[in-house]
Design goal:
single chain; three-stranded mixed β-sheet; 9 helices; 3 strands; mainly alpha; about 300 residues; about 10% strand
Length: about 300
């Protein structure tokens, strides 16, 4: 990715991370007050989630700042993997939070005292829903423009917060207003399980990037078709792909007429690279030219193992 695009992307992701931090800070203050006044386990769970949102937002901000730095002598492939690392750290905080909420909810099943000031808790939860909707909408726009994994992980977590806040409202209405004892801790357990599930999905995505998982088959086949459609290209093999932060890394070999001049082969590579960049903007591409039908010995062995 060129320096101009990298800088522009960095500005957008930093703004999204700052917006996330600001939202978590505001919601943390109002939920802390509501949790103290109501004594609701569900509200306490929501507060714990927001407190971890605040920590996660700081991690995300650091991650996107590092990921936006251009490649240097020590990091030739750039700093894109800072984003999945940030996302992975988020999942640790989310999981710890979920365990704490679940434990508190189990203890609360023996407490016969219903939550107090239910109206306050419901009002705070409605306010949280409105703030979260605004933030998630903004983050969705940023992710569509940058493809940032860290911001997308943050967005998915805040998106789950919508259900979490609705759960708090339901718990308070059922337990404090309708007298259904046990509804509040039951929703606390539900919230804890929901957080663990979200953390698992985010961790899986982050690990895929850190482990250099290949593109989906459909995307790989589209790339192969695009390359093979270039005049002079007689085939493609040894295709390797991965994604790190904001950049797709693509490398492959193409077959050309063995009697072709070096200049002619170079011209074909230029056309191939231009086509791939048009279809996959910002990619880092490495193309190797082979005479038609030729396989490197080690590459042929890798290809057979891959199959």
């Amino acid at each position: 990715m060129d320096a101009t695009r990298l800088e522009a992307r960095g500005k957008l992701t930093r703004r999204a991370a700052i917006a996330s931090f600001s939202a978590a800070l505001v919601l943390g203050v109002v939920k802390a007050y509501a949790a103290m006044e109501t004594g609701s386990v569900a509200m306490l769970g929501s507060l714990a989630d927001t407190a971890l949102d605040l920590i996660a937002s700081i991690i995300t901000l650091i991650g996107v700042r590092v990921a936006a730095e251009p490649a240097d002598a020590d990091h030739r492939f750039g700093h894109g993997k800072a984003e999945p690392i940030a996302a992975l750290l988020q999942t640790v905080f989310i999981t710890v939070s979920a365990i704490g909420i679940g434990w508190r909810a189990v203890q609360a099943f023996t407490n016969e005292t219903p939550p107090a000031e239910a109206e306050l808790g419901i009002g705070v939860s409605i306010f949280a829903i409105l703030v979260t909707l605004a933030l998630v909408s903004y983050q969705r726009v940023i992710v569509s423009r940058t493809g940032s994994l860290a911001i997308d992980a943050d967005r998915m977590h805040y998106q789950s917060d919508l259900l979490l806040n609705l759960s708090v409202i339901a718990a308070l209405v059922l337990d404090a207003m309708l007298g259904m004892r046990g509804a509040d801790p039951l929703f606390g357990v539900f919230i804890a399980l929901w957080l663990v599930w979200g953390a698992f999905k985010t961790a899986r995505h982050a690990l895929d990037m850190l482990m250099d998982k290949e593109w989906p088959d459909e995307k790989r086949e589209a790339l192969k078709a695009l390359v093979c459609a270039v005049p002079g290209v007689e085939g493609i093999h040894e295709l390797k792909t991965r994604h790190a932060g904001h950049t797709d890394f693509i490398q492959f070999h193409i077959w050309v007429d063995p009697h072709m001049t070096v200049q002619a082969a170079h011209d074909i590579v230029d056309v191939v690279e231009a086509g791939v960049l048009e279809a996959f903007p910002g990619s880092d591409i490495l193309v190797h030219v082979d005479p038609s039908g030729h396989f490197d010995t080690h590459a042929a062995q890798e290809e057979s193992h891959a199959k």
